[in-house]
Specification:
Strand order of the largest sheet: 9-8-7-10-11-12-13
Bound molecules: glyoxylic acid
Strand content: 5-15%
Helix content: 25-40%
CATH architecture of the largest domain: 3-Layer(aba) Sandwich
CATH topology of the largest domain: Rossmann fold
CATH class of the largest domain: Alpha Beta
Shape: globular
Number of domains: 2
């Protein structure tokens, strides 16, 4: 653990902030100018006992998706805690009711990671459809191969119907990129988007979206209503030979996805993040047609800098007596989208 303290921290009762993971360069220094900041300066998550101990007496916590922010952690932090600033757009690591009950605000980092994450969805879609992972593994294995008219054929994306499950910022950025491939876009969402945001995409009931999407990209956030929303039954509704890309852990049931690949119902799939990270479902690891990457959606230099800066902006706003800049508001309904 590396402590970074302001000079004021030695004389006055400066607010104390815990940062649970190493952040982009310069981010913590900006925070430390306004408070006493303690940073877990490592790429691995804080072990739970260390996290509980280090949280005590903090005014704010900058957390990541690996930190379970539950009643136990909030109580370990104590009554001084005013903000949990999640360094992510998702907040499924956070018990919102427990935060609300203690008057603790929650912020997240929407907007700044949209383009990087949409780029990754397309990187994965192209890799899955064109068998990039399989091809690379073949070359590296040293097994013999030869170009042939029938060798390692993929699915062509141009003109293929694209379905997007979850048309928030990231879903819309995925849709915008589809125009370059001439792909008609349909979507399913909790609510219809205003026409200017729909940009020609058609809102469909979930059953219809699944039945008509040769390519499905899942960007719906994980919450009680969406956990395992795409299960074996819903995967079976996709056209035979479809490609699925999952950008949100836990919305697609990983075991069911492996089953749909194994049976040949899906042509290929790609997954960016996983329900039980760092573990990946073994059945998925065994599938040649699965492109699997270790939660890289927002992993660019520019975006991680912006996420760190926004997390700190949220803390600074609250330390200055204001509202977090990007406060998280839970969705109005917990009913599953239908
Ligand atoms: C996912 O990686 C997120 O930022 O929620």
């Amino acid at each position: 653990m590396t402590d970074i303290r302001t000079s004021a921290g030695t004389r006055t009762a400066a607010p104390r902030v815990l940062v649970t993971r190493r952040l982009a360069p310069g981010v913590v220094e900006r925070l430390a100018a306004a408070c006493e900041a303690t940073v877990h300066d490592a790429e691995q998550p804080m072990p739970r006992p260390e996290l509980l101990a280090a949280a005590a007496g903090r005014t704010a916590l900058i957390t990541t998706l690996d930190d379970a922010v539950d009643a136990e952690l909030l109580d370990a932090a104590g009554p001084a805690l005013r903000l949990v600033a999640n360094h992510a757009v998702g907040t499924h690591n956070i018990d919102h009711a427990a935060c609300a009950a203690r008057g603790v605000a929650v912020s997240h980092t929407p907007g700044v990671l949209t383009e990087a994450t949409a780029d990754m969805a397309w990187a994965l879609l192209l890799a899955a459809a064109r068998r990039v992972g399989e091809g690379e593994r073949l070359l590296r294995s040293g097994r013999p191969w030869a170009w042939a008219p029938t060798f390692m054929l993929g699915m062509e994306l141009g003109g293929t119907p694209l379905g997007i499950l979850g048309m928030g910022r990231i879903g819309r950025a995925v849709a915008r990129r589809a125009a370059a491939f001439g792909m008609p876009v349909a979507y399913h969402n909790r609510r219809r988007l205003p026409a200017d945001q729909e940009a020609g995409a058609e809102l469909l009931p979930l059953d219809e979206l699944l039945a008509t999407s040769r390519v499905l990209v899942v960007t719906a956030p994980l919450n009680d209503a969406t956990r395992h929303l795409v299960d074996a039954r819903r995967l079976a509704q996709l056209p035979s030979g479809a490609v699925l890309v999952s950008m949100t852990a836990g919305v697609v049931d990983e075991a069911a996805l492996a089953g749909a690949l194994d049976s040949g119902h899906l042509f290929a799939a790609a997954v960016d993040n996983f329900e039980h990270e760092p573990a990946v479902h073994p059945a998925l690891l065994a599938q040649e047609r699965a492109v699997l990457v270790p939660h890289l959606g927002s992993a660019t230099v520019r975006t991680r800098q912006a996420m760190g800066d926004l997390a700190v902006d949220n803390v600074l706003a609250v330390l200055a007596g204001g509202e977090p800049v990007t406060r998280f508001s839970p969705p109005p309904t917990s009913a599953p989208p239908s």
